[in-house]
């Protein structure tokens, strides 16, 4: 009986050693597997040096206007103003003729009575001027003397200002001056002396007094 028990104990001992060996081997393999998984897993997620350099060299997109009115509008190109064309000489001449003073509408001289009064010390000045107007068909009253005058002037009744201008133009004194006939008339002339004259000429010491007869 003792001889059979010894071999059984040996067999049991060998079994325990074999189990321990298998457990140790499994633990070693498991440890190696964990180490391999920890080393290889993060390799795929780490960026390479080439990728990092490419990312740094990529230019950032330029900012575009947001359309809210913050950006200054681009000024439109300014067109040069056209130069005014030189006026046509013929058109300029026509314009000058159009703006020229219209001729006076003078009444028939034979219907206009004129009184000439001498306000100077030039003898016969009123008579000579009356004769010149009479030759132009004006109805002249007998010339008279007037108070001393400083210059010649033309006086007219209401509505006969144009006729006074016509007479002044005839005598070369178109600038006048011209005044309405007052009451009493100027130059010491009475209404009786004025009579039916529509225009009164007072001669002063100027060109009218020196006109030849």
Question: What features would you describe in this structure?
Answer:
The structure is a single chain. The chain has 6 helices and 6 strands. Residues 40-45 and 92-100 have low confidence and may be disordered. Strand 4 (153-156), helix 5 and strand 5 (178-180) form a beta-alpha-beta unit. The protein has a domain at 109-210: Alpha-Beta Plaits. By secondary structure, it is of the alpha/beta class. Strands 1, 2, 3, 4, 5 and 6 form a 6-stranded mixed β-sheet that branches.
Tags for this entry?
single chain, 213 residues, alpha/beta, Alpha-Beta Plaits, six-stranded mixed sheet, rod-shaped
By CATH, the topology of the domain at 109-210 is: Alpha-Beta Plaits
Helix/sheet category: alpha/beta
Strand content: 5-15%
Instruction: Describe the largest sheet.
Output: 6 strands, mixed
Write down the Rg. Answer: 66 Å
* Separation, N- and C-terminal Cα atoms: 201 Å
Helix content: 25-40%
Write the layout of secondary structure elements.
Elements: H1 2-40, H2 49-57, H3 89-98, E1 113-118, H4 125-135, E2 139-140, E3 144-145, E4 153-156, H5 161-170, E5 178-180, H6 191-194, E6 199-203
Structure in a nutshell:
This protein is an alpha/beta fold and about 210 residues long. It has helices at about 1-40, 50-55, 90-100, 125-135, 160-170, 190-195; strands at about 115-120, 140, 145, 155, 180, 200-205. It has a domain at about 110-210: Alpha-Beta Plaits (2-Layer Sandwich), CATH 3.30.70.2390.
């Amino acid at each position: 009986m003792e001889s059979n028990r010894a071999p059984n104990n040996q067999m049991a001992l060998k079994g325990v050693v074999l189990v321990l060996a298998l457990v140790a081997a499994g633990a070693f393999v498991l440890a190696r597997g964990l180490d391999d998984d920890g080393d290889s897993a993060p390799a795929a997620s780490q960026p390479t040096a080439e990728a990092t350099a490419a990312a740094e060299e990529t230019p950032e997109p330029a900012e575009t206007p947001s359309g809210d009115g913050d950006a200054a509008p681009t000024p439109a190109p300014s067109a040069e103003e056209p130069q005014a064309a030189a006026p046509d000489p013929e058109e300029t001449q026509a314009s000058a003729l159009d703006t020229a003073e219209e001729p006076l509408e003078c009444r028939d001289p034979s219907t206009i009575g004129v009184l000439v009064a001498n306000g100077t010390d030039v003898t016969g000045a009123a008579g000579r001027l009356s004769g010149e107007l009479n030759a132009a068909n004006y109805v002249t009253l007998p010339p008279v003397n007037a108070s001393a005058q400083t210059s010649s002037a033309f006086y007219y009744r209401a509505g006969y200002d144009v006729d006074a201008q016509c007479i002044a133009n005839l005598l070369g004194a178109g600038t006048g001056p011209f005044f309405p006939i007052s009451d009493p008339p100027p130059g010491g002339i009475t209404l009786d002396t004025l009579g039916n004259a529509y225009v009164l000429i007072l001669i002063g010491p100027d060109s009218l007094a020196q006109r030849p007869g």
